[in-house]
Specification:
about 70% helix, single chain
């Protein structure tokens, strides 16, 4: 309708994106990590699960005793560390995408319904949001994963059911501001169905706001997955996960600190890329820029 982005405005929005350093740096770094995860079978020099105890704890290439076959060394079971780092990107990105899909679907739907209909429906959903905000995420996730068993599916399901509140709050506020706009009132007068108004008219007009929330929540999910894997309640070994790799290397932190530094640096770069991209999108799509 009239409120959607016109074709004439799209080139200007694209130019603002290209001039924003956060979008360029964060988006480029994130795209690189995504490509590494997608082409992991082609990039990994070894099987990330293959063990060779005769080559355990080989140092990376900048230290003595390193071997060319293992550029970043091996872990305590002789597994190639570079290959495990590459495949670990798949786990972090996969968990982030899965959790955001579940939490975003729940939060956006509840926020749209609460913001558009108001009244007692808004009161009930607001109470549900408040009840969810009163729960400590980490403690509930620890208890749920411990009871349900540590697995990738359980982790995605538990985090997806716990991290929808920010989507709901933002979507509810945006729907409340849009429901009395002229184009929505005109659609009501024409007899348009509520589902069409909600999902084909109101939702597309808040896509920029939702995109910013999504990018910031991905970073939170990645850190939570790493924390739970570090505690042994996330991804189960021998699946390569950056949080699990940090946990496995903590016993050798004094003698082989690179076992923790390498997956920790990879995790830091991924979270930094997502946060830079989210901040850049927020700056570009903010009211002043628009």
């Amino acid at each position: 309708m009239a409120e959607r982005t016109s074709p004439a405005r799209r080139p200007r929005a694209l130019r603002r994106l290209c001039r924003n350093s956060g979008v360029l740096i964060g988006g480029g770094l994130l795209a690189l990590i995504v490509l590494i995860a997608l082409f992991a079978p082609l990039l990994a020099p070894h099987d990330p699960l293959a063990q060779d105890l005769t080559r355990r704890l080989l140092p990376p290439f900048w230290q003595e005793r390193s071997v060319p076959e293992h550029l970043l060394g091996t872990d305590h079971l002789g597994r190639d560390y570079l290959s495990r780092l590459i495949y670990g990107a798949r786990v972090s990105l996969g968990v982030g995408a899965g959790v955001i899909l579940v939490s975003g679907s729940i939060g956006i739907t509840l926020g749209l319904v609460a913001g558009y209909f108001g009244g007692w429906i808004d009161m009930v959903i607001s109470f549900i949001i408040t009840a969810r905000l009163s729960l400590p995420i980490v403690l509930v996730a620890l208890a749920a994963v411990a009871l349900g068993g540590a697995s990738l599916t359980t982790l995605v399901t538990v985090l997806g059911l716990l991290l929808w509140d920010r989507f709901a709050v933002v979507t509810r506020a945006a729907a409340q501001s849009l429901r009395h706009r002229e184009f929505i009132l005109g659609l009501r007068a024409l007899g348009a169905g509520k589902a069409r108004i909600l999902f084909l008219e109101i939702l597309p007009n808040m896509q920029a706001t939702i995109l910013v929330v999504l990018s910031l929540e991905v970073a939170n999910v990645i850190l939570l997955e790493a924390a739970l894997s570090f505690l042994g309640l996330g991804v189960r070994p021998p699946t390569p996960s950056w949080g699990l790799m940090i946990s496995e290397g903590r016993d050798n932190i004094l003698f082989d600190p690179w076992l923790i530094a390498l997956p920790g640096s990879a995790l830091c770069l991924l979270v930094l890329a997502v946060n830079l991209l989210g901040d850049g999108l927020r700056d570009v799509t903010g009211p002043v820029q628009r």
